[in-house]
């Protein structure tokens, strides 16, 4: 059987399996504890699970590893990358091997699974994306691709955000899909909040950056002498970054000036041999099949709100956090404007355009080349179309949230 038809058959099996799981799940998300009456049916249930996996689960591990490696090596971009995801959707054994074969974006430069959006980008070649703004619905969609003109229908939706104005602040709710921005949905991944003037922003992540924070926060929510109830997932927001725009009321200091303090990334991440936090799975039981990287429809999860569920204190990193600053533009005498070298990725002058580099202290062991390396750049290429290129140590989610801050109104900064 040719490899292409083989992968197509795997994809159809994975789709049927996910539909079967949807029908079987119903509305109950939490199963009761096993009792003596149900112990007799445990053996039949396990045998049923084995039957549902089908003959594909019985392939020799060596053959299965070779197949998945060939599929992963052949498909290097979307929509062909969907075949890799289909392999992970067949059964547990296929998923385990697929997750072992597929590397993180830092090492392979590809976005495959939803968790890839929370992992650092590649160190050398940046991942090129673009953002489409919809003024009528106040939504912003992040796509993978060079531009809408070049990518067209081949563009892959990565993240979406909706702007929600309040009396004293503005929220950008970020989701994995483009039609569900509810904080109680399993597609919710975080938010960006601004102050009244639009000069200070806070980035909140629905996932804690490390497992120790999960343990401490779960213990803080536990009340003594409380009645035993079925567990429910509590939605939390963890502050991972702060963005500050310098005031420029008199408009005498040129373009916008911004600083980003990445609370979840240590400053040593950009030093030689340094590493950035890399989550390998969602810790809040997020169903990854709800992401546009896998399917188009999401599933709901039970969420319990409490007074402490809106802003969890984040355990600070061991060393000084990474600080990013915008690269200073130069004044062009002939054009009579401020200019930056975007290497052809930005074509329209805009106050929103920026490039971020690391703000390095003299005590840090960072080379001059690393200090000049652009970690994130954002700029306009057309009406409501903007490019976004990011690299290590930022993730797609972090880069998207920083770029969203540029869309908010800043009367005191420009």
From TrEMBL:
Record field: compositional bias (Low complexity): 35-47
Region (Disordered): 17-53, 207-230
InterPro entries assigned to the protein according to its UniProt record, in alphabetical order: F-box-like_dom_sf, F-box_dom, Tubby-like_C, Tubby_C, Tubby_C_CS
CDD domains: F-box_AtTLP-like
Occurrences of domain Tubby C-terminal (ranges): 117-409
Occurrences of domain F-box (ranges): 56-98
Single biological process term from Gene Ontology: regulation of DNA-templated transcription
Family note: Belongs to the TUB family.
Record's protein name: Tubby-like F-box protein
Originating species: Corchorus olitorius
